Amino acid sequence: SPLVMLATAPPQHPAPGEAISFQPPLQLFEGCLVDTPRFGELRLRKDHVLAVDATGLIAAILAPGEEAPPDIREAVSKARAEGRLQKLEAGQWLLPGFVDCHIHAPQYSYTGTGLDLPLMGPDGWLERYTFPAERRLGQDLPEAQARYRAVVSQTLRRGTTTALYFATLHLEPSKALASAAEELGQRALVGKVSMDRNSPEDYRHAAETNIADTEALVDFLEANCSSKRVSAVVTPRFVPTCSPELLRGLAGLAERRRLLVQTHCAESLDEVAFCRALHPEQPRDALLLDEAGLLSGPRGAILAHGVHLSDDELDLLAKRKGAVAHCPLSNAYFADGVFRVREALRRGVKVGLGTDVAGGYDPGMLSAIRAAMMSSRMLQSGVACYDFGEERKADDPAAAGRLQGAALSHAEALWLATMGGAEALGLEQQIGTFGAGKSFDALLVDVRSPDSAVDVFPEDSLGDLLQKFLHIGDDRNLIQVFVQGRQVGRLPSKAPGRRDLVQASGE
């Protein structure tokens, strides 16, 4: 089916240092802005006015009492006079949209099942669930269209404004996924999966077919995606299912068409062992990817999981300006380890968060944020510190499986889900924080929304409410979702009004 063509032209993001221009009329929001411009830095801007122009770009952010340039001042005054001001209430704030750096759209239908299986092997996750589900969508385009609309709709409901998708081996269903994202308003990077070995005979293609179909997807999106929000990425599934010939051919395509590369790497112990058996001469999949040229393309590469990357491989990835999509929820089931987020960032590797549906059982990024914090604390405290209640090796952190300083704060995990993800995808000039010239990809959070799971007390500060939202909030607290200034999601409410503060009776 053809892509839905949006009426508005794609916005022109200014280069760093370039003067900001805007297209009237403006839509105004007045209230609190929350974002994380740097890893570990939480920025709370209260009573600010954020102005969005007609192309969906942020035209200005004004602090209380700040004098705006004349053109902005005039446009803001006109917007106020014409009722284009949305004033946020207590318990509401704007948050940058979540960036999911790794999600398998065709696996959405069996999310939450099969998590008791290993990843690899004849009775593993891939053979019993993944390959059959993906192959089925390749044979039934209407079913693929329906399921892809479901996953895009669901992730938007949960606040994912940008997603890096794995599709399937087949071209037409991959186009359908891109079409769903374009029509429903999500910012998306879509990869047609490439495989030519170690998968079912009827679910693999020759190397040249994989390469040609990937380029056909690139051509299709460049010709039909008027908003320029949806683009194609080169997507070898991982080394076990891709021959060296295919890897080199895809690297050439990424170089020629200036494309981002996504794949899985150092994901689990059984995947690492499979790579070693396939390539005893070079058993490390990160090095095989680099030898093929996939890590050194013009847009770089984002590697899903990366749990078992060595220090040297992290350094190599940093040298190649690459990224890791940290998928803490699925890693708990399949990875046999915890990714070292802080160490990767310290070495210069870009890191974002991924849900890894359906290896991760929740398509919402709030679960990824929570899993990132929990797994980092387990990495720091260790899982081998006690033996039947008796402390052992307390003076040897390495022997106890502890990595000191690994724990992530809520501000750091939020950065991974927003600005960290934007940097990992090379979109940091467009999304991830609130700033003039960036796209207005945003969530209007309301901890007092009807049916909210969050109780609010009089003593709660904004910082307290943010922590409550990140730890116990859910999509009921996301009352509006915006991508490039366009409202793409608002949850229906069965309950009237907003929740009151919890107070003692008679107060």
Terminal-residue CA separation: 59 Å
* Average pLDDT over all residues: 91
Total DSSP helices: 14
List low-pLDDT spans.
1-8
The secondary-structure class comes to alpha/beta
The portion of residues assigned to helices is 25-40%
Number of strands: 18
Morphology call: globular
Seen as an oligomer or otherwise, the chain set is: single chain
Layout of secondary structure:
Blueprint: E1 27-35, E2 43-52, E3 58-62, H1 70-81, E4 85-87, E5 92-96, E6 98-104, H2 125-139, H3 141-157, E7 160-166, H4 171-184, E8 187-194, H5 207-224, E9 230-236, H6 244-257, E10 261-265, H7 269-278, H8 285-292, E11 301-305, H9 311-319, E12 323-326, H10 328-334, H11 341-346, E13 350-353, H12 365-381, E14 386-387, E15 390-391, H13 410-424, E16 442-446, H14 462-472, E17 478-483, E18 486-489
Parallel strand pairs: 1-4, 6-7, 7-8, 8-9, 10-11, 11-12, 12-13
Antiparallel strand pairs: 1-2, 2-3, 5-16, 14-15, 16-17, 17-18
Commentary on this structure:
The protein is an alpha/beta fold and 507 residues long. It contains 14 helices and 18 strands. It has helices at residues 70-81, 125-139, 141-157, 171-184, 207-224, 244-257, 269-278, 285-292, 311-319, 328-334, 341-346, 365-381, 410-424, 462-472, and strands at 27-35, 43-52, 58-62, 85-87, 92-96, 98-104, 160-166, 187-194, 230-236, 261-265, 301-305, 323-326, 350-353, 386-387, 390-391, 442-446, 478-483, 486-489. The strands form five sheets. The protein has a four-stranded mixed beta sheet with strand order 3-2-1-4. It has a four-stranded antiparallel beta sheet with strand order 5-16-17-18, covered by helices on one side. Strand 11, helix 9 and strand 12 form a beta-alpha-beta unit. The longest helix has 18 residues, at 207-224. It starts with 26 loop residues before the first strand and ends in an 18-residue tail after the last strand. The model is unreliable at 1-8 (pLDDT under 50).
